[in-house]
Design a protein that fits this description.
This protein has 11 helices and 8 strands.
Length: about 280
């Protein structure tokens, strides 16, 4: 059985005051492939059992799953995400992510369309670091064009770990070119946090998410941009408790907390009416 570290602790650990009534939405959860590690990060063991246990432990109503950046068979991972969305209706949703350099632009566009229209995925992911693609290059266009034409948000990888392709400034021109496309910055770590906040302040279609950040920068982003521009992102099951805790202390009141942990994702991913509980 896939391990979830929270299993080591008592049932009252990670129990926050909002657990029973908020309905948290996790927007960034990587689904591992069975028995193999990711080719880029060497990650593994974030299977559906661990994810569901973490969700139940932390009061998370729904999670949006995506492949890891170096998945061996991304098409199979997409089908697994769909399988789990059917097994756990209203709790599991999908984001499609693939390397256009491996599968070609035509196949990438077809897979994106299949995932959104047939598998009911709620977003696409551009992983410039793992896939080695400059977001300003023509090769990246299929991600932006597909997301806009399909009417779903595009999550993009930013941060110090994948420079130069994860420099948030490289997305400024794309965000201006596609003002009707919601672009979500995955990660907001120390080195790029101020740049990400500044860009989001000037480009209203850029949204931020919590992973790899610290509470001080999350609080700054929420203060400057409003809670409706921030959402929960934990990467894996073990990260859920810490990411939720950071946002508890980064928000200024219960109303902001509800927006950050639930309402922003409901609107960005068009999830209203699709969860188990009324949205």
């Amino acid at each position: 059985m896939t391990q979830y570290p929270g299993d080591r602790f008592g049932s009252d650990v990670y129990q926050f005051g909002f657990k029973s009534n908020l309905g948290v939405i996790e927007t960034h959860q990587h689904l591992s492939e069975e028995a193999v590690e990711d080719r880029t990060f060497g990650w593994g063991n974030n299977g559906i059992d661990a994810i569901m246990r973490a969700m139940d432990h932390c009061g998370v109503e729904a999670s949006i799953l995506q492949p890891l950046g170096g998945a061996h068979d991304v098409f199979a991972v997409h089908r697994k995400i769909y399988e789990y969305s059917q097994k756990y209706p209203g709790r599991i949703f999908g984001i499609a992510s693939l390397n256009v350099k491996e599968c070609g632009e035509e196949r990438a566009a077809k897979e994106f369309e299949h995932c959104v229209k047939e598998l009911k995925f709620v977003g696409l992911k551009f992983h410039g670091f793992s896939h080695g693609i400059n977001p300003a290059s023509p090769l990246a266009s299929v991600y932006f064009e597909s997301a806009r034409s399909l009417g779903v948000p595009l999550m993009v990888c930013v941060g110090a770990h994948g420079q130069p392709f994860t420099n948030p400034g490289l997305f400024a021109e794309r965000a201006a070119m596609y003002p009707d496309l919601t672009i979500i910055f995955a990660h907001m770590d120390y080195a790029i946090a101020e740049t990400a906040i500044s860009l989001a302040g000037r480009l209203p279609n850029i949204y931020l998410s919590s992973s790899l950040s610290i509470t001080a920068y999350l609080e700054r982003a929420i203060t400057r941009l409003g809670p409706e521009r921030m959402m929960l992102a934990s990467e894996d099951a073990a990260g859920m408790p810490a990411e939720i805790a950071k946002l508890v202390f980064a928000t200024h009141n219960d109303s902001e907390l509800r927006v950050v942990l639930r309402e922003t994702a409901l609107d960005v991913f068009n999830l209203r009416g699709r969860l188990r509980s009324p949205a």
